[in-house]
Amino acid sequence: MSDELTPHEQAVQAVADFDRAVHAPAVDAVGVLFRALGAASAQHAQETREARARWRNRPEAKARRSAAARKAAATRTAKKAAELAKWQAEAERDARVPKVHCPHIDFVPYGAGETECVLPPGHAGEDHQDADGHSWPSDDCNEADCGDACGY
Fold it and tell me: pTM for the complete prediction?
């Protein structure tokens, strides 16, 4: 096979060689055919890889990829900044203590809000107390009292 032939011409040549080999019994016709087709296929694959490399390395293609990479980096930076601002706003909102809260529960700004009483159940008339010693009135909050007292 000659390197000056195109892959199509090589395939045509391989078929012609196969036809010739079929009529000459001393030659392995199938082996000749597959070797020739394999060589044509390999050359075609190499030419395709080279063409793709040339296409990818064009100056305008490189410029587009660079611009896309810069845009993606800017988008990622903006998303990270927005997410950080969101987290900071949420943390600030959670850190604020409300001006009005129900007097019938112990409001702890750094905790879960309402704390459980550590005194034995049914201790009517006494103040409630949590594990840290904070206490609050024992009358249970109902909607009528809470609404009047807290302004909800």
Answer: 0.36
